[in-house]
């Protein structure tokens, strides 16, 4: 067992705090990771607000890269010294979803079995089964994916959640390929990642839509060929106009609201795909759309769960593309911060001032 500094959410709606936690030595199937960098994501804030569940106290943080310090007896997939990006979907390889080749729907994903605790023994609930706003964290070995050790931790750690969700929404779920027209509605961290993924895949045009001009500038930097400020312009008409009157082959909805999903529905080509990657709240309903409009359009309406990624396939590939200068992960890192600055980083995220703040440990 070791004691390390970590960021926890002790009670619903309370500011997060830095405290000392106990991290057990890795048992069978587990790995102890010395965390180097961990991004601040909306989901961490949702945990703090009690929006995910009530299993306080939470150990926050889940977009992380670090070095494996020790592994349990039976672990062969990673070894001490390996540089890894953590994932929150360590698939079982054995269930119905895994068998049919869709491991992103795996029913039996792995987390560490032993519990990290507060000094008084209270068990912590690690955010998304990770808990990486901590100098060291205990995870399932399958949650560690080895990547190029010379890559910048703050940048590649972001592949562990939001950036992978966005890139994967475009490339994996939307099957964006060279020459397809793509529109991305909502250009926060997830949406601009979908823009970057579409550009990487050779899509054209890549149309970025947002109500915030700052976000549209970021989208341009990451490969958008056109931008649409939907607070000023009807995005459906604008997307149609930019695609020869047809609508986009793929529209990625990265806001998670009924009105933007409706825009996506109408902004796609008749045979186009809508990918919902923004996370709606439980009270939101599918918008009223005449059934005849559904009948009149083919294509598909999809959702994307963690970018339908397979970490062992996608993380090393995307890190290599980053290292080659073909995927600008650095552009997502707005600021590097200390472990004491997470609460303030939530405020900056809320204000829309950052794509990602990344805690350096
Ligand atoms: N039309 C277009 N864009 C919008 C609209 C709208 N009506 N409303 C909000 N947006 C934009 C915001 O300006 C912002 O740029 O959507 C973006 C949302 O980005 P973030 O809040 O940074 O969220 P992000 O991390 O990208 O995640 C997107 O997925 O993980 C979930 O909770 C997360 O629902 C959120 C979504
Ligand atoms: Zn499985
Ligand atoms: Zn996240």
Automatic annotation (TrEMBL):
Q: Which UniProt keywords apply?
A: Metal-binding, Oxidoreductase, Zinc
Q: Which cofactor does it need?
A: Zn(2+)
Q: Highest taxon of the source?
A: Bacteria
SMART domains according to UniProt? PKS_ER
Identify the InterPro entries for this entry.
Answer: ADH-like_C (IPR013149), ADH-like_N (IPR013154), ADH_Zn_CS (IPR002328), ER (IPR020843), GroES-like_sf (IPR011032), MycoS_dep_FDH (IPR017816), NAD(P)-bd_dom_sf (IPR036291)
Pfam families per the record?
A: ADH_N, ADH_zinc_N
Record-annotated Enoyl reductase (ER) domain positions: 13-359
Q: Which SUPFAM superfamilies match?
A: GroES-like, NAD(P)-binding Rossmann-fold domains
**Family, per entry:** Belongs to the zinc-containing alcohol dehydrogenase family.
Q: Which PANTHER family match?
A: NAD-DEPENDENT ALCOHOL DEHYDROGENASE, S-NITROSOMYCOTHIOL REDUCTASE MSCR
Q: What is this protein called?
A: S-(Hydroxymethyl)mycothiol dehydrogenase
